[in-house]
Amino acid sequence: MIKDSVSIRGDxxxxxxxxxxxxxxxxxxxxxxxxxxxxxxxxDRVLGTTSEVISQIGLGDGTTAPDVSQTALTGSNQVFKxxxxxxxxxxEVKSWIASTSFIDEASETPSEDINEIGLFTDQDTMxxxxxxxxxxxxxxxxILDISWTLTIG
Length: 153
What we know:
Blueprint: E1 8-18, E2 24-34, H1 36-47, E3 54-60, E4 78-82, E5 85-87, E6 95-102, E7 114-121, E8 126-136, E9 142-152
Antiparallel strand pairs: 1-2, 1-9, 2-8, 3-4, 3-7, 5-6, 6-9, 7-8
């Protein structure tokens, strides 16, 4: 029997930028876990059998280790923001690139350290989640810039 397999990889880039000086204060790049429901969603999206779209990034204070069975962020302090851009795969580029920025409103970021980040669809399917090895802290005057790349190979 012939068996094909496809790998799905997720990478998150996080930058904390001082809004006044435009200097990067902190930069984190990390691989993330693709959840089981996330893998199913991505395959369904490639096949055109779902109308769900990748739509938001969630931040939280949870520190529970990522697990493929998770369907939500684990912390009690969570904030979600719609994506500012989404690049879909093409024949040349086999990646989704989702990005957004959390700017200067206190309501846009958790009041505690950011420990976990999740990528969600418009129907609240958590595609991917990662827990940071060191928390990211965004001051009210900072810009938190997040770019998430999902690659199917």
